[in-house]
Design a protein that fits this description.
The structure is a homodimer of 377-residue chains.
Chain A lengths: L6 E8 L2 E8 L2 E5 L1 E5 L10 H6 L5 E3 L1 H6 L3 H6 L3 H4 L6 E3 L3 H5 L5 E3 L4 E4 L6 E4 L1 H11 L3 E3 L11 H21 L7 E6 L5 H14 L3 E4 L8 H11 L9 E3 L5 H9 L4 E3 L2 H8 L1 E4 L2 E4 L19 H5 L2 H9 L4 H26 L3 H14 L6
Helix pairs in contact in A: 6-7, 7-8, 8-9, 10-14, 10-15, 11-14, 13-14, 14-15
């Protein structure tokens, strides 16, 4: 591979952790970064201005959902996903593989790729490494992901090895199909289930091909914290220091902190947005369920120390009422808060790395999370 | 009644139409005014900042919904409805009568008031004129409405007369229970079904009691345009020129224009907000259904002449996608647009009255609405 499509600069280090800067065709992303999930062309309930106001610098779009509806060719005719959803900042798209694999009996995998039936109307689709790259180019993604196979968990070693090697062959085809343009990059995805040797083989194969960045796939599938951290620790040293590392689908605030400390630069997860829609709030002192009756006359902000527009303007009693009454403003306000909380955490991690104080930061973070919501009204 | 609780000043006239200014404890409302409906303590999907950005100066809260959940005493303990929903500007609350009457077999009316079962959990409630005033004081409404009986349509003259006279007696009890405070007002409601003599008798009775403003109730119940306009024309001359007139529950943009021309100063209606949630857009050239397939690749704004944040940032194709995909951002964006459209129409009406050009404005408005969406892409 020639000069990288997306530039990445490591600005500071603290142990294995890095504070960096990723530069794409649509601007800069400070890392460690959390990507807000905008599945079907929208971060559910938030306007682009509200997304940006949470501190979000990059949004993730899902190839699977967008290829079914409204379709990548249509989005391309409308000027690409950035224009379509009026998000002028960086976008990373996944390859669709993860969603397709989870369709179970609706899909069939061959060496060529995967065929599946739409969960919307049952119509047939095919996704190959080449088509996944093409779709992401039609969407105009700043960062595209290779099509990979995500093995179920648990899986036996033979299947895991076979699947990982096919993912490597797919990665090579993806790279061959990818048209390099400045500011646009393609990331490889390390697979290999929970078997360190397979993870290292996968990483070595991808690094030899040369990608703009490297993702850790196939985690956050129920493997548990210890195993996940072990896989991160086994994989990160096998990846080039000068390229970004992306842990897919993770996670809770504590998971992000632990992964950052082990050298991860990028994350995505539905947790802050999905939880925001069901009434779960993330705070410095752990989580709160806004539907709980104990909030019904509590005038305090969800997180009194939070600077988001939800916490500045609204109390727990109001959020409790909105969720109890099924008012859509509840999900809007809490999604906004949760994303802001995640982004504030990432900013604090970046600051701690820059200052060489990550260890102290993590100790304080864990102590505060364990404290819980200790001030009943 | 002594000095009015809410001040009203007529700044300009054009025929029967007035351009005025209503001053309440929470600020000023320019009239003719459209009140956004915030049924259960939220204008569905919009943050307070977004409500204000549509040009909305006053929000309507529903006593029925708020008395059931979260309860007026609770809202009072939390500092009142303004603080509860973080809306610092004027609020008018209805008396709950209209919703209770529509509960059909769940309610019972006596001279004392009405008892009913909650549609939420079946528990028993009583609403009397005195309790309706008390609830609205607990909510902290800038403008409260008397409890009245809204007769079904059609109704025979005997029932209509009996009901209207009971509403008059209830109005008198409401007024006696109302505690006058500067910047807080109580409005009477003219009833009398579609019978001009009864409407005039109702108006005369209320005017003799002396209210801060007068509403026309019992319309928008399926009586049809001609009858509604006739009732407005019969009633308005019976109301004092120096007090605001409020046509309850109306209506479509053309209905507002016609009522303003006949001397109405205030309106409320769920149409812009409810339609916004189901995909119907109001524009200068009539309505559009965003779910319609003809919008699927149309990059134009819902209304290219509109200055709202939705029309400045998003195209029809995107809104079409959001409604098709069931994304909650669709209702948010379209509610915002529809309210902005309604408020821009009210502002244009105010400007036309001020300039003495209301007739020309109405002719142009009607011609443009009739044009339709004439530029298929």
């Amino acid at each position: 591979m020639s000069a990288p499509g997306v530039a990445f600069e490591v600005l500071a280090r603290d142990g294995a952790a890095r504070r960096g800067r990723l530069t794409t065709a649509h601007g800069t992303v400070n890392t460690p970064a959390f990507m807000a999930v905008g599945t079907a062309g929208s971060v559910k309930g938030l306007t682009p201005e509200e997304i940006a106001a949470t501190g979000t610098e990059i949004v993730l779009g899902n190839t699977y959902h967008l290829m079914l509806r409204p379709g990548p060719e249509r989005i391309a005719r409308l000027g690409g996903l950035h224009r379509f959803m009026s998000w002028p900042n960086p976008i990373l798209t996944d390859s669709g593989g993860y969603q397709v694999m989870s369709l179970a009996d609706l899909r069939q995998i061959t060496e060529d790729g995967v065929t599946f039936k739409s969960h919307l109307d049952g119509s047939r689709y095919a996704l190959t490494p080449e088509r996944a790259v093409e779709i992401q180019a039609l969407l105009g993604a700043d960062i595209a992901m290779v099509l990979d196979e995500c093995t179920p968990h648990p899986v036996d070693e033979g299947c895991a090895a076979e699947s990982m090697r096919r993912s490597l062959r797919w990665a090579e085809r993806s790279l061959a199909a990818f048209e390099a343009r400045p500011g646009h990059g393609l990331f490889g995805i390390v697979q290999g289930a929970m078997i360190p040797e397979l993870r290292r083989e996968s990483a070595a194969g991808l690094v030899e091909m040369g990608f703009d960045g490297y993702a850790l796939g196939g985690l956050a599938v129920g493997e548990g914290r210890e195993t996940r951290l072990q896989m991160i620790e086994e994989t990160v040293p096998a990846l080039p220091a000068e390229r970004p590392r992306y842990l897919m689908g993770v996670g809770k605030p504590a998971d992000l902190v632990e992964a950052v400390a082990r050298g991860i630069d990028m994350f995505d997860c539905v947790l802050p947005t999905r939880s925001g829609r069901t009434g779960q709030a993330f705070t410095r002192r752990g989580t709160l369920n806004m539907s709980n009756a104990r909030h019904r006359e509590d005038p305090r902000a969800v997180d009194p120390d939070c600077g988001c527009a939800t916490c500045r303007n609204h109390g727990r009693a109001y959020l409790h009422h909105l969720f109890r009454a099924g008012e859509m403003l509840g999900p809007v306000l809490l999604t906004r808060h949760n994303l802001y909380y995640y982004q504030a955490l990432m900013a604090a991690l970046r600051g701690a790395i820059q200052a060489g104080r990550l260890g102290a930061f993590i100790a304080a973070f864990e102590a505060q999370q364990a404290e819980g919501d200790l001030e009943p009204i």
